[in-house]
Amino acid sequence: MLKAYMRTIKVSDYVAEFLHAQGVRHVFELVGGMITQFVDSIYVQGNIQLISVHHEQAAAFAADAVGRVTGVPGVAMATSGPGATNLLTGIGGAYFDSSPTVFITGQVTRSEQKGERAVRQLGFQETDIVPIATPLTKAAWRVKVPEEIPGRLAEAFRLAQSGRPGPVLLDIPMDVQSVQISAESPTRVMPTQSVAPDAAAIEQVLAELAAAQRPLILVGGGIRAARATEVFRGLVGRVRVPVVNSLLAMDALPYQHPQRVGMIGSYGNRWANFALAEADYLLVLGSRLDVRQTGALTEAFKGNRTIVHVDCDVAEMNNRVKGCRAIVSDLQVFLPVALSLAAHREFPEHVDWMKQIAQLKAAWPDTRELQDMPGINPNVFMHQLSARSRAAAAYVADVGQHQMWAAQSLELDTHQYFLTSGGMGAMGFGLPAAIGAALACLDRPVVMIAGDGGFQLNLQELQTVVRNRLPLKLVILNNRCHGMVRQFQQSYFGERYQSTFWGYSAPDFAQVARAYGIAAATVEEPSKVEQAVAEMWQDPAAPFLLQVMIDTMSNAYPKVAFGKPITEMEPFAKPVEMEST
């Protein structure tokens, strides 16, 4: 056996080498004193592009997007104190949405750390980020001695990718970064392999899918997290069962796929919720079955039907919806076995069931939910945007009403990703995540969809777009208010619109874009939408901002009436009580 080659190397240089060995192409950061060693080492080695943003939250969101698109952990760095704490919203978003990410924070030198002293702070900007970040990560560690670095980095990348993916944080003191250590040249770290599920359990599921009269598959974000989209599509084509999706699985099947039904849940397509209620057998793949999918009445969601829940996270099984049959398995392992076994079995076409779903869709089209609203209909707009955006590698949606209109009506192609902030629901996600997605997609065009409220949270990253010449198509649905909360106030607070419409304002985003050197246009009339979208795509490689003016009082419909089954949706049904989530 050959003896491993050891050499002496500075810690910050080793970190730069290690990241490159993992396939990391970009590191997102806002420079600060406690990470200058890392920044310098990465710059000098020249193998990784440093993407300097203007707020650490943006770095975290961008890293999240990279992790989701590539499967290689996205990496963001921040200095101690405010830099580290500014990462936290993005770290939490990556945790809830199962995005493989690694966050590296600089820390004050070990001699300046308060340790057990009964003081609030010793070193300038000293902040103990590890216990703060621990509830939002798979692991968070403070490096105490330089010799820990190789092992901690390897474990961080392994953990971020293994099982249910998520973020890991490493906090590294400034003095540790400059120490010379003995270490081997870093190699690629592979995730821990999952145990194959019981073939008999999968055979039973396939037999039940074939025997059911109205079977349905509910697919969640776990499909993308498991890197299992292609094999999932193969299985669906084989078993010929209709598929509904959660918000984070918008891109599990392309829009035109014959088995695709639509999005279910609180703001789901009305026909998809009806189909879900009618299904006599439900196979859940990689979905948490949270309240936004099931509604508050979990017993009504379960009904008398069989629900088989496949997920790699045992804690999610029978958590809210009781009585499900659990199969604990990584979908990356489960689905290839299922596809192999399905090849030896015949499956019916479910003609009557598919016809029933088609009739529901024809009776309740998404474009008629807001048919009486004046001006541009946002659901209609999403279809128009899709028709012109075939060249886009991804759509990235911020958080708000526009997010729901996008999920209800975008027509995704086979090659297109859909990214949004699900569990955290963080406004401001859109622009930074679109930056990350464009870089992850090798500078192919990316469409960002945001509202005027959310866009203002990280508007400063327009400069990052310009500096890096990114082909982002930035669509802002401007209703001059915080629309989703305004809709909430309309339902529960007697139409008192404080802080959503009253006491709120937004700039002319077209003028803002031009100030940054980005071409822009505004459209207000439905008849001019197609022309405006065509202008946005005139140069696919150039950034462009399109401001779409919509009516302030437009609501995101349909919406499950809180406290009622998912088939009872506003505006026709009224909530029993104020929703608490």
Secondary-structure blueprint of this entry?
Blueprint: E1 6-10, H1 11-21, E2 26-29, H2 36-45, E3 49-52, H3 56-70, E4 74-78, H4 82-86, H5 88-96, E5 101-107, H6 129-133, E6 139-142, H7 149-161, E7 167-173, H8 174-177, E8 180-184, H9 199-211, E9 215-219, H10 222-225, H11 229-239, E10 243-245, E11 260-263, H12 270-278, E12 281-285, H13 291-294, H14 298-302, E13 306-311, E14 325-328, H15 331-342, H16 351-363, H17 378-388, E15 394-397, H18 401-409, E16 417-420, H19 430-440, E17 446-451, H20 452-455, H21 462-467, E18 472-478, H22 483-492, H23 509-515, E19 519-523, H24 529-536, E20 544-549, E21 559-560, E22 569-570
Parallel strand pairs: 2-3, 2-4, 4-5, 5-7, 6-7, 9-10, 9-12, 10-11, 12-13, 13-14, 15-16, 15-17, 17-18, 18-20, 19-20
Antiparallel strand pairs: 1-8, 21-22
Structural overview:
The chain has 581 residues and is an alpha/beta fold. The protein contains 24 helices and 22 strands. A hairpin with an 8-residue loop joins strand 21 and strand 22 (569-570). Helix 17 packs across helix 18. The model has no long low-confidence stretch (mean pLDDT 96).
